[in-house]
From TrEMBL:
Biochemical pathway: Purine metabolism; IMP biosynthesis via de novo pathway; N(1)-(5-phospho-D-ribosyl)glycinamide from 5-phospho-alpha-D-ribose 1-diphosphate: step 2/2
The keyword ATP-binding appears for this protein: yes
Enzyme class: ligase
InterPro entries tied to this protein: ATP-grasp, ATP_grasp_subdomain_1, PreATP-grasp_dom_sf, PRibGlycinamid_synth_ATP-grasp, PRibGlycinamide_synth, PRibGlycinamide_synth_C-dom, PRibGlycinamide_synth_C_sf, PRibGlycinamide_synth_CS
Domain of life the protein comes from: Eukaryota
Name recorded for this polypeptide: phosphoribosylamine--glycine ligase
Lineage of source species: Eukaryota, Viridiplantae, Streptophyta, Embryophyta, Tracheophyta
Species this protein is from: Ficus carica
Family: Belongs to the GARS family.
Entry's EC annotation: 6.3.4.13
NCBIfam families assigned to the protein according to its UniProt record, in alphabetical order: purD
Length: 517
């Protein structure tokens, strides 16, 4: 059996001739699709890891074939794309890592990036590029011929970076500032749910603290109080008592602890069940699901303590069965995409749906939308993704997701977040972290993603943020991924850090979890 590889760019017509027979086949390859007519001399055609390439398996010597390709009109060039990732956290490190593995990606820049991203070689970090200055970002893109900008954090999205890049004819993956209101305003999201019959928790919106408290008294506790705007992941209070709910209302509407983000509050029904994260790529009209993942928001073991940006995650999430995923797409994601389009506000980017699988009904309800990859869910998704990320995101920018199908590794992945002691409250910065290389040597599948690190004068990594590292591992199943991740965590010498010891506890209820060092 003999193999040959044919690299095709854009749309091509390929005719294969067998020199000894009249048998022939005309194939048309367009973007990610391959159409084949019978050819008795060819036993199989399969895609390989190269972009836009496939292998032809022949039962006879391939020397008996003469092959030629004819470019169809509209073919794209063979030039590989230069990518700029905006952001500097663990999510952006994971995106850079996936881009570096994309064979169609020529160079990866990250702005501002962090010391860990730069040190790992996953991207060239541009620490002095002001990502809040659209003109500076556009100038950089033109200077370095950037063909795709991927915006990681929510703040540049809400401030309109994608609007400005699009106007400058620079492909940008992410929503416009108008579409980013799905995350930037919980009231906007809730209103869309009302209009397009998207299942979510019962709620009311208030600007008057007295009216909010009257509603809380009527509804009783537990109840959820949310700041309308962006509050760095800290604007949601699950109040277990009426008094706690009143205090949350006063902190937002009277004391203005979240500034303008808390000038309006949503008082929401408390839903009991299991949380899950659902991600979909959207091109304005079409959406395709990513693999499922589950986050751990609470800071303490057993889901105790205050909410955080996320202390760990795993993928896939057993709670999201294939049937539930189909239901989420049908009842939540697609109505949102169609609704945004109908409102004249097409959404392009990642829809990250925070879901509650209700205990009493077993059905999914939408808790909130984020308009970017989750952190730390992005870490487990990116290590499992086998498709060319650059090409997939470019397809989304072009409105071509209907022709894309994603490939994922089998097995599972888990990330354990290591945070500075005191997080999510006040914490010490500058504490030294050692033995990161030893952690990555635990298994070939282990990858340490950096979220808040820098290098000191001696070349040591030091902590600069609350969530600092995302220790990620893959395995044939969730148990193996978990064991490898925690073995790697145990290698890291960081007295100033801590981590949850029970990531994955819902999916592995009988597992003996690690003991505190």
């Amino acid at each position: 059996m003999t193999f040959t590889t044919l690299s095709l760019n854009g749309a091509v017509n390929l005719r294969l001739h067998h020199t000894n027979t009249a048998h022939h086949s005309l194939l048309h390859y367009s973007k990610s699709r391959l159409f084949q007519f019978p050819l008795r001399s060819i036993s199989a055609i399969r895609f390989c890891n190269l972009p836009n390439s496939f292998h032809i398996n022949s039962p006879r010597s391939i020397s008996n074939f003469s092959c030629f390709a004819i470019k169809a009109e509209g073919s794209i060039s063979e030039e590989r794309v230069v990518v700029l990732v905006i952001g500097g956290g663990g999510r952006e490190h994971a995106l850079c890592h996936a881009m570096k593995r994309s064979s169609s990606c020529d160079t990866v820049f990250c702005a501002p990036g962090n010391a860990g991203i730069s040190n790992s070689g996953d991207a060239t970090c541009i620490s002095n590029l002001d990502i809040a200055d659209s003109a500076a970002v556009i100038s950089f893109c033109r200077k370095w011929n950037v063909g795709l900008v991927v915006v990681g954090p929510e703040a540049p999205l809400v401030s309109g970076l994608v609007n400005d890049l699009t106007e400058a004819a620079i492909p940008a993956f992410g929503p416009t500032s108008e579409a980013a209101a799905l995350e930037g305003s919980k009231n906007f999201m809730k209103s869309l749910c009302d209009k397009y019959k998207i299942p979510t928790a019962k709620y009311q919106t208030f600007t008057d603290p007295a009216a909010a408290k009257h509603y809380i008294k009527e509804q009783g506790a537990p109840i959820v109080i949310k700041a309308d705007g962006l509050a760095a992941g800290k604007g949601v209070i699950v109040a277990t008592t009426i008094e706690e709910a009143y205090k949350a209302v006063d902190s937002m509407l009277v004391e203005a602890v979240f500034g303008s983000a808390g000038c309006r509050v949503i008082v929401e029904e408390f839903l009991e069940g299991e949380e899950a994260s659902f991600f979909a790529l959207v091109d304005g009209e079409n959406a395709i699901p990513l693999e499922s993942a589950q986050d751990h928001k609470r800071v303490g073991d057993g889901d105790t303590g205050p909410n955080t940006g996320g202390m760990g995650a795993y993928s896939p999430a057993p709670v999201l069965t294939k049937e539930l995923q189909d239901l989420v797409m049908k009842s939540i994601i697609l109505p949102t995409v169609k609704g945004m389009s109908a409102e004249g506000c097409k959404f392009v980017g990642v829809l990250y749906a925070g879901l509650m699988i209700e205990k009493k009904s077993g059905l999914p309800k939408l808790i909130e939308y984020n308009v970017r990859f989750g952190d730390p869910e992005c870490q487990v998704l990116m290590v499992r993704l086998e498709s060319d990320l650059a090409q997939v995101l470019l397809a989304a920018c072009r409105g071509e997701l209907s022709e894309v199908s994603l490939s994922w590794s089998s097995g599972s992945a888990m990330v354990v977040v290591m945070a500075s002691k005191g997080y999510p409250g006040s914490y010490e910065k500058g504490t030294v972290i050692q033995n990161l290389e030893e952690a990555e040597h635990v298994a070939p599948s282990v990858k340490v993603f950096h979220a808040g690190t820098a290098l000191d004068m001696e070349g040591n990594f030091v902590a600069t943020g609350g969530r600092v590292l995302g220790v990620t591992a893959q395995g044939k199943d969730l148990e193996e991924a978990r064991d490898r991740a925690y073995q790697a965590v145990e290698q890291i010498n960081w007295p100033g850090g801590f981590y949850r010891r029970d990531i994955g506890w819902r999916a592995l209820p009988h597992k003996q979890f690690v003991t505190k060092r």
